[in-house]
Amino acid sequence: PQANIAVVGLAVMGSNLARNLASREGNTVAVYNRTTAKTDDLIAAHPEAGFVKAATMQELADSLQRPRTAIIMVKAGRATDAVIDELVSVFEPGDIIVDGGNALFTDTIRREAAVRETGIHFVGCGISGGEEGALNGPSLMPGGTAESYETLGPILTGIAAVAEGEPCVTHVGTDGAGHFVKMVHNGIEYADMQLIAEAYDLIRRGTGKSPAEIADVFDEWNRGELESYLIEITAEVLRQVDAATGQPLVDVILDAAGAKGTGAWTVQTALDLGVPVSGIAEAVFARSLSSRLAQRAAASDLPGPAEAWQVDDADAFIEDVRKALFASKIVAYSQGFDEIVAAAEEHGWDIRKGEVARIWRAGCIIRARFLNDITDAYAADPDLPALILAPYFRDAMAETQEAWRRVVVAAAQAGIPSPAFSSSLAYYDGLRADRLPAALVQGQRDFFGAHTYRRVDREGTFHTQWSGDRTEVEAVDTH
Ligand code: NBP
């Protein structure tokens, strides 16, 4: 056998990953695709890669040194299950099957348990960075056993993106941990994109600046603490002029945002875990709202603010928006990491949060200077109760929160939707609140459902006899 690694599924992601693998010293890459013509096309187009062709799964297995290692890059869902079954039938105990697709982490947990029965390792590996990342260096989030990582780690390290000399890959945790972390990455990506979009909208409507002028603002921001891939590409999109109409492209793109579901997964999972990821949720819902075109058209004559809005000092307002964006972004990441912590507890994953931030610094969509600060925060204190409570982020909040409030007030008064800015601010104020009206909610729950409550001044669980004489009794806690 000549090959040390195989790629199964040669659409755009698989082809690029196979080429990336082949370009690294020491790798010989076997390639397989259900439709063999695609395998032939790839091999013909890239003779320099020295691919080993596998026309069947058996040929694939025969071409691989042990432990055999194959990375699956097929359409997530049933195709993945079909390919796993085929690989299991030709692989042997100790071999390694990696799923690099966008699998739901619960599917990965199920698949890992089933494949483990055969003695074969199954690794769900989150891969971020799209086509470009797959070819030139993605951020890689493998789960699975520590044993499988001994073989897989060096191979993945060779192809990963590099940030400040360090490859963006780590063994995230067992079974579905890698795909889970990839999912949260995508959720944070939704929030980051929505926050940037809100910032653009507020600046445009508040100052009257053109998209190209706002691109200059984003370029400026990209030289400071907001420096990130998403800010960078936002400026490029805003500067683009539509060839057909001569209008800014952003003005001719239909304002209905699509989604492929990973943001929704992040929120659904957070609901199950009881973790408030409100910034991420608002970003997902903002896309849903935008796409309800018929409803929006029917609602377009609902009343809004009576007076037109114009900010007095454009530069001061833009600086406020920058601060609001930074503060909201910190909230989104803090919430995302809370979800990771909760899932790690639930599933018994030993996830090192600083490592997660470290491997997101290059290769992936949310890569940003800011991730260095998150890495540093968790290095200084791995048990931070929340990311936002790290000294650096506390200071950032002190510097930004007043500007953030001004922006949210202005948006509300002007009738400009800023769901991610405002819900993040509400979260921030909820988190730091001395007392929350949750006390009243508990009272209401006790009234109609005898759900009981605890007291601030005594241990125990209590119930007020609402339908009787309204005296309080000590209750047996049924929860
Ligand atoms: P697609 O998601 O479009 O899948 C196409 C591949 O799946 C082809 O190789 C196809 O083989 C194969 N396939 C299908 Br469909 N059903 C199959 C079956 N029953 N048995 C065997 N093979 C089957 O490819 P992609 O866009 O390259 O994405 C691959 C994975 O990477 C997906 O899970 C995706 O979510 C994930 N991902 C994509 C991106 C991105 O930016 N596109 C980023 C990160 C992750 P055929 O040629 O014979 O039809």
TrEMBL record:
Substrate binds at residues 102, 128-130, 185-186, 190, 260, 287, 445, 451. The active site is at 182 (proton acceptor), 189 (proton donor). NADP(+) binds at residues 9-14, 33-35, 74-76, 102. InterPro entries: 6-PGluconate_DH-like_C_sf (IPR008927), 6PGD_dom2 (IPR013328), 6PGDH_C (IPR006114), 6PGDH_Gnd/GntZ (IPR006113), 6PGDH_NADP-bd (IPR006115), NAD(P)-bd_dom_sf (IPR036291), Pgluconate_DH (IPR006183). GO terms for molecular function: NADP binding; phosphogluconate dehydrogenase (decarboxylating) activity. Residues 178-467 form the 6-phosphogluconate dehydrogenase C-terminal domain. It catalyses: 6-phospho-D-gluconate + NADP(+) = D-ribulose 5-phosphate + CO2 + NADPH. It comes from the Bacteria. GO terms for biological process: D-gluconate metabolic process; pentose-phosphate shunt. Gene3D superfamilies: 6-Phosphogluconate Dehydrogenase, domain 3, N-(1-d-carboxylethyl)-l-norvaline Dehydrogenase, domain 2, NAD(P)-binding Rossmann-like Domain. Keywords: Gluconate utilization, NADP, Oxidoreductase, Pentose shunt. Its EC number is 1.1.1.44. The keyword Phosphoprotein does not apply. It is an enzyme of class 1 (oxidoreductase). Catalyzes the oxidative decarboxylation of 6-phosphogluconate to ribulose 5-phosphate and CO(2), with concomitant reduction of NADP to NADPH. Homodimer. Belongs to the 6-phosphogluconate dehydrogenase family. This is 6-phosphogluconate dehydrogenase, decarboxylating. It comes from Agrococcus sediminis. The lineage of its organism: Bacteria, Bacillati, Actinomycetota, Actinomycetes, Micrococcales. The gene is gndA.
